[in-house]
Amino acid sequence: MKKIIAITAAILTVAGCSNMSNTEQRTLSGAGIGAAAGAVGTAIFHGNPIWGAVGGAAVGAASGYVYDAYKKEQASEYNAGYNAGKTNKPANAPN
To answer: How far apart are alpha carbons 51 and 95 in whole angstroms?
Structure first.
């Protein structure tokens, strides 16, 4: 019975994340990684793992969002250079 519940939970988790944008995926990934790191870190130092997970999730979500903004800026610069090369015009940096 526990195996069926675990498999069902895993399937629902994967299906629930299938229609997310890149920003949502990166923010959620950051939050998950941060929560795990925060919980482990506070457990190692004999703190409360719940508060470590909460703090880690907040920092991780913010980091994931900032990383997404960086990747979007990087893609924008690449596309501007690519289009400039295609049209033989100088590249204008995106604003």
So the answer is: 39
Query: Which residues does 94 contact at the CB level (< 8 Å), separation at least 6?
Result: 73, 76, 77, 80
- Cβ atoms of 81 and 91 closer than 8 Å: yes
The residue count for the chain: 95
- Give the pLDDT confidence of 63-74 residue by residue, as tens digits: 999 999 999 999
Q: What amino acid is encoded at 65 in this protein?
A: Y
- pTM exceeding 0.70: no
- Amino acid found at 33: I
Check: CB of residue 30 under 8 Å from CB of residue 67. Answer: yes
Task: Report residue 83 CA to chain centroid gap.
Answer: 28
Please state at what angle helix 49-87 crosses helix 22-44, rounded to 10 degrees: 150
Q: 80 with 93: CB under 8 angstroms?
A: yes
